[in-house]
Amino acid sequence: MQKVEHTGRDGVHDIGPFTFEGGGHVESLSVGYTTYGELNAARDNMLLVLPGTANTRHSADGYIGSGKAFDPGQHFVVTVDAIGAGTSSKPSDGLRGNFPQYNIRDMVHAVCRLVTTAFGVKRMAYVAGASMGAFQALEWAIHYPDMMRGVILMVPAAQSGNVFRGAVRSATEVIKLDPGWNAGNYTLQPLAGLRAAGRLYFPWTVTDDYLESLSESGLEQELQKTVTRAAQWDAWDFIRRYEASASHDISVPFEGKVGLALAKVTTRVLILPTSTDRLLPLASARQIAEGVAQSHYVEVPSKHGHLGWRPIDGAPETLFITTAIQKFIKEGETS
């Protein structure tokens, strides 16, 4: 079968006034997105892909395409910028430190408005995401359980653990040590602090075995990739986004009980943790599997830890994840 190239189409939708779970409010909230493929007449073939903490709507592009995990020839694939980054509303638009603190459920409720108002979709095919994208996808399954046929969670967790929270706290605090931070009233970006935050954060996203397999120059090259990405952020955008991700806890609206939250999930759920993830506890992924009635749990063999989910052409993890997702979708379509 000949593979078809699918070009993404970008858009930004204003969902109007928005009140955050923590009580903050804005009169206008924008959500950026890119679409691939076509929405069918029944408006029920949308596959929504959600971004990770450090990512925009393009973080999963390597999984999108003909014959790939998210095939625009089969589904109307929509990737979004969550609140706080990309072309969605964010602190650097002008409010900076006065931009309301937001959380994962705020991201979900905002994108739900996008889905229903911009596309007129009441029920999607699938919702998918990795890391913070998986946090969002899980909250979708809890709070909008009838809006999708299935959910795909790559490197997920029901709650952010102490390792992740500690790494985020250290990364955000080191930004504030930069003299240019100026109590958040910076004129120029505190780039030294942002670069240091990226350097500090990176080792937690991989494994000791992977780090020790690198040469000294190889390690520096890997660190520089994260340093470069961190320096591309606005400081307030970085801090608010990582704080939101670190606050992830599905149990908050359910008396602090994870089991009560997971019991709300009635759709099929594919759970794809990497076998060596130390940023997010593997036990939390297993907890999701145990608490969801229609769960499909598959550990991804990897020495790359949390970053094992990232789409890399020819990588065994990418092939493994793609195969697992295609199988999950095929079984859902035929059941």
UniProtKB/TrEMBL annotation:
Domain of life: Bacteria
Keywords: Acyltransferase, Amino-acid biosynthesis, Hydrolase, Methionine biosynthesis, Transferase
Domain AB hydrolase-1 as annotated: residue spans: 47-307
Keyword set includes Ribonucleoprotein: no
An example molecular function term from Gene Ontology annotations: hydrolase activity
UniProt protein name: Alpha/beta fold hydrolase
Biological source species: Polaromonas aquatica
